[in-house]
Design brief:
There is one protein chain. The protein is α/β, with parallel strands linked by helices. The chain is about 40% helix and about 10% strand. A 7-stranded parallel β-sheet has the order 3-4-2-5-6-1-7, with helices on both faces. Helix 3 crosses helix 4. Pfam families: DEAD. Its EC number is 3.6.4.13. GO terms for molecular function: ATP binding; hydrolase activity; RNA binding; RNA helicase activity.
Length: about 250
């Protein structure tokens, strides 16, 4: 995160779990970027968020902070099995999944929540060994996630938090059917905290949010206005029939 894109809003201003705040500050994260300042009040209130934000805006830490806080603040479901992660973070590429995992490691070390990583190409047995010991947060690409799910190495019936990162690229790479397959194996949207981030909130991305999220709030940070003042307006589209909040900083 570039310090030139920080707001006056501090992570410690929010009612975040103390372990999360401590982990952030240990890594030097004190002030929020615009997308974090806009998304966190919603996710901390249990609201689903669909955010338009480019790479480098701090969106990864926005959804990681929300995910760790939620899992620390809510108990796992009763009778959760060892092969049932509590949170699923889906990324379009192996490289992005690995980067998200690296960004999540300091939070995992501080909180005791266990991370798992699943991506195609290599590392199958190594990834599986971690999953077999049980993970709280699973980060991965859709193809490998489906592979593990079909073999019952993972079961998505206990998912409490879902993140879909770079949703527009998921469409571009042809992964949308995989995404829907995975969503069908999870509890209903109203029983999860759902977050979606995309470089663009196109019609098809909004349609996906409509299908898989629970009355999501929309937040937007324009690439050229990462530090501009906030502007909010509400409206309903014929398709969504939902309140959309556009915020620019």
């Amino acid at each position: 995160m570039s310090k030139t894109h920080l707001t006056e809003q501090k992570f410690s201003d929010f009612a975040l779990h103390p372990q999360v705040v401590e982990a952030l500050e240990k890594k030097g994260f004190y002030n929020c970027t615009p997308i974090q300042a806009l998304a966190l009040p919603l996710t901390l209130a249990g609201r689903d968020v669909a955010g338009q934000a480019q790479t480098g805006t701090g969106k990864t830490m926005a959804f990681l902070t929300s995910t760790f806080h939620y899992l620390l603040s809510h108990p796992a479901i009763d009778d959760r099995k060892v092969n049932q992660p509590r949170a699923l973070i889906m990324a379009p590429t192996r490289e992005l999944a690995v980067q998200i995992h690296a960004d999540a490691e300091p939070l995992a070390q501080a909180t005791g929540l266990k991370l798992g990583l699943a991506y195609g190409g290599d590392g199958y047995d190594k990834q599986l060994k971690v999953l077999e010991s049980g993970v709280d947060i699973l980060i991965g690409t859709t193809g490998r996630l489906i592979d593990y799910a079909k073999q019952n190495h993972i079961n998505l019936g206990a998912i409490q938090v879902v993140v879909l990162d770079e949703a527009d690229r998921m469409y571009d790479l042809g992964f949308i059917k995989d995404i829907r397959w995975l969503f069908r194996r999870m509890p209903p949207a109203a029983q999860r905290l759902n977050m979606l981030f995309s470089a663009t909130l196109s019609y098809r991305v909004r349609e996906l949010a409509f299908e898989q999220m629970n009355n999501a709030e929309y937040v937007e940070v324009e690439p050229e206005q990462k530090t501009a003042t906030a502007l909010k307006k509400s409206f309903s589209t014929p398709l969504m029939k939902r309140k959309c909040v556009y915020c620019k900083r």
